[in-house]
Structure formats: C-alpha cells, structure tokens
Amino acid sequence: MSRTLLDKIWARHVVAQTPGHPALLYVDLHLVHEVTTPQAFDGLRRRKLAVRRPDRTLATMDHCTPTAPDQATAVAGWYAGRRSKPGLTAIDAEAAHQLETLARNCREYGIELHHVGTPGNGIVHVIGPEQGRTQPGMTVVCGDSHTSTHGAFGAFALGIGTSEVETVLATQCLLQHKPRSVQVRFDGQLGAGVTAKDMILALIAQIGTAGGTGSAFEYTGDAVKGLDMEGRMTLCNMSIEAGARAGMVAPDDVTFEYLSRTPSAPTGAAWDAAVDRWRGLRTDDESAYDETIVVDASAIAPMVTYGTTPAMAIPVDGRIPKPRGNERARVEKALQYMALEPGQRIEGQPIHTVFLGSCTNSRLSDLRSAADVLRGRKIAPGVRMLVVPGSERVKAAAEAEGLHTSFVDAGAQWRSPGCSMCIAMNDDRVGRGEYALSTSNRNFEGRQGPGSRTFLASPVTAAASAVAGCVTDPRPMLEGAK
Predict the structure, then answer these.
(1) Which of 245, 312, 432, 466 is the most buried (most CB within 10 A)?
(2) What does the pLDDT look like over 351-389, one tens digit per residue?
(3) Per-residue pLDDT reduced to its tens digit, 29-88
(4) What string of H, E and C letters represents the secondary structure of the chain?
C-alpha cells in the first residue's frame, strides 16, 4: 500500500492506540519557552513527577525578552552572573518573572536552557533547526502555534497547549488523532521578487483560514524544490494560519546540506546511515494523499494582507476586494478596523512602522534579501524600522557579512534576538491607530499592540515599503539593486 510522508512518520511513533481513540505518540524533541511552561512545571511538582527525557527537551527565552540593545545587555549580564544593576529591572516585572521562572524550572529539572545573551539563544523555531536538533522523521512539539516550522525538515511538528506540555514533560508522549494527508503542490517557478512568504499568503488567500482544518500539509512541486531550507521553514511556519495541524516538506539534498553544517548533526558513518534512512522519508505515490491542492506558483505576485486574518491577502498591485458571500460581515468588520475601503489600492497605503523579524522571517537569508533592497537607500522620514534577527547565531552571521551596517545606514534599528513585535510582549509595539508592515505571521486586531493595524508581507516588500514610506511593490527596487 502506498504511504505518505505523514504515514511513515506516524507509524514509527505510535506507542499504543485503541480503535476509535487518539494514538499515543512518542515525541522526539520537545521545545519549551517562558510563556507556556510555568503551569506545566507546577503541575509536575504537584504530582511529584520528574521530566521523563530532559535530554530530548530544549529551552530558550524568546517571547518576552528585550530586543533594545541596552535592555538585552542588562538581562544578558544578569544571567552571565553579573548581578549589578539594572539587571532584570531593565525590563517589565512580569517579563522578568517569566524569565526567572523558566530559568529556575530548567535548573530544577535538568533541562538545557539558552538564556538571553548566550550563543544558542533565540526564537525557539529558529534555534532548533540551526542547531541541528530538528531532523527528518522526528516528531517535534512546542507550546507555540508555529511549531509547524520544523516540518520543513520532513518532521511531524505541531503546536500544543499548556496541559499537553505537562503531559509531554512527564511522559515524552502525546495523545493525537491522525490528521488527513493533504498535498499542496506549487506548480511552476516563482517570478522575480516573489518569495516563500508570498507563496504561503497566496495559498491561505486561496483556501481560507479553515482550508486545512484536520490536515497535515505536505508541500511539493517545482517551486518548493527550488526553495532553500529557510524558505521552506517560512512556508511550513504559516501552515497553521490555513487551519492545518502541520506542514511538511520531504527531505532532500537541500535538507542534508543544511543539516551537515549544524552542530548536532550526526558525523562519519552515523551521518551516512542517517542520510540513507532519511531518503526514504517521502510519499510513495500521489494516490496516497487524501486531497491535493494546486497553486500556480508562476502566477503569484508579491502579496500583502489588507484585513485582520492572513487569508485577507492580495497582490501588492491589486485592489481591496468588495466583501461578499459568507465572509462579508467578517471582511466589513476587518476593513472598518483597518480604516480601508473596498476598491482601494493597497499599494501607496502609508505606514508608520516596518518590522523585519519573527519565527517566519528572521533568518539570515531574510536579512540578506532586505539588506539588498536597503543598501544605498534611506528609510522614509517618519517611518520606524526594527530589524530583529531570529537568534544570536543569525545576528553574529549578519554582522560578519556587514548586513547590520546596511540596515543602520538606511536608518533602521538593529536589535537583539527575540519574538519582538510579532507578539508585542515586550516594549516593541505599534501605536494605536498606526500601520505596521510586518514580516510576521499574524495580523489579528491588536496583535502588535492595542489598536495597531498590521499588513503582512515578505522581507523584500517590507524593505521596499520602508524606503517608500508606504506599501510598495519591491520589484522595481530589486531591479535597481542589481
């Protein structure tokens, strides 16, 4: 019988299952951070339980960590043992409490923690792959919606709730219903200035935020094969925004080359054996899928959202559609919140802030593409641009290439790693009624600050818009950057 990539990973991880009930799945890698874990660790204490596999648990501080250099330096100094002021008093008391709680829990339970300022610190969905902890065929979980990012390596990766975090800490297993296997095939090649971010926004606009409900997407097609690993991570990252439980790409030579450069990858004979095993992680035949969704990659333009869900997205040179059908009331409400009108061109819409970062678009290739646009140009007067690398490793690599100089010379702020303005749990916020063009993954009401209005787009569109001071098609500037 033909099997999908999901079928193969699932079968290898089922510990037990009663017909008609969820399967008990073994978890290979559990990623944790400061926001969704305090109650889980408290539950372990109440029940006098240990962490089952500390060696398969990896922690980082990311959601509420400061990115302003002075604050980040103060917090890093605190965790490096320099207890002089300001230390943790440099940040919000609630954020400081969350960081301290995570540090205490990791010490108590013997969990590897990358705290602020250490070389391994960064956004949880950036550090797992770059350290080689995420590998093909794994099951990966985290108390965060965008855990699907790790599926780019041919892993089954999903976000879980706090009670499930406690379960995995205690048992290294998780109850799950098997999702449907859905092929998402991007036929054709991408045009100039079109990125993985535009691919996923185009897909969500096509199928809606519930189009993948109960499914695990497997991304295929020439356009997907042509992406580097960082582009594939962007694609898988936003699978959840289409309602999918997970997103995956079958591992190939691109995957293996990336992993070969990571510190936790196997070496020698173990590497050869791993690659031989990983090459078998692919769907046997298209007939094995429960459904196939086809997207014409050659028809995708740089995309930008106009409403309050990622599905409300259009080409940057398009007009805001008139609300109609079952979504009419929802779209009308979104346009009212965004203070936009049907028929209005999205290009030319003024913006106040540009955010380049998040687990969707904060990797080295994202920074390179934006720097290419900004080099030799200046950010428009009145526009604030925050550039937040996804990890300390990304930050160091970008600085070694001089990318930070391109950003600073253009007038952007070069920050320390963290989730930052994606979720606005620190001081990185958009003002009430202001517009942000963001490379993050969610444009919900108030996501980037109370009353904030968000346009989602790619790094190149973000950089071009920062220069223009309004939503802008990046393709003319990319031509000028050659």
Answers:
(1) 466
(2) 999 999 999 999 999 999 999 999 999 999 999 999 999
(3) 999 999 999 999 999 999 999 999 999 999 999 999 999 999 999 999 999 887 667 888
(4) CCCCHHHHHHHHHEEEECCCCCEEEECCEEEECCCCCHHHHHHHHHCCCCCCCHHHEEEECCCCCCCCHHHHHHHHHHHCCCCCCCHHHHCCHHHHHHHHHHHHHHHHHCCEEECCCCCCCECHHHHHHHCCCCCCCCEEEECCHHHHHHHHHCCEEEECCHHHHHHHHHHCEEEECCCEEEEEEEECCCCCCCCHHHHHHHHHHHHCCCCCCCEEEEEECHHHHCCCHHHHHHHHHHHHHHCCCEEECCCCHHHHHHHHCCCCCCCHHHHHHHHHHHCCCCCCCHHHCCEEEEEEHHHCCCEEECCCCCCCEEECCCECCCCCHHHHHHHHHHHHHHCCCCCCECCCCECCEEEECCCCCCCHHHHHHHHHHHCCCCCCCCCEEEECCCEHHHHHHHHHCCHHHHHHHHCCEECCCCCHHHCCCCCCCCCCCCEEEECCCCCCCCCCCCCCEEEECCHHHHHHHHHHCECCCCHHHHHHHC
CA atoms within 13 A on the CB side of 278: 26
The position carrying tokens 């694609």 is 235
Question: CA-CA distances (angstroms) from residue 325 to 20, 58, 105, 332, 474?
Answer: 37, 46, 50, 11, 32
CA gap 281, 72 in Å, rounded? 41
Residue-level pLDDT at 481:
60
CA–CA distance, 446 with 133 (Å, rounded to integer): 34
Pairing type for strands 291-296 and 303-305 reads unpaired
**Using an 8 Å Cβ cutoff, are 467 and 377 in contact?**
yes
- Which amino acid does the sequence have at 479? E
> Each residue of 163-193: pLDDT tens digit?
999 999 999 999 999 999 999 999 999 999 9
Question: Side by side, which strands form the sheet with 29-32?
Answer: 112-114, 57-60, 29-32, 139-142, 156-159
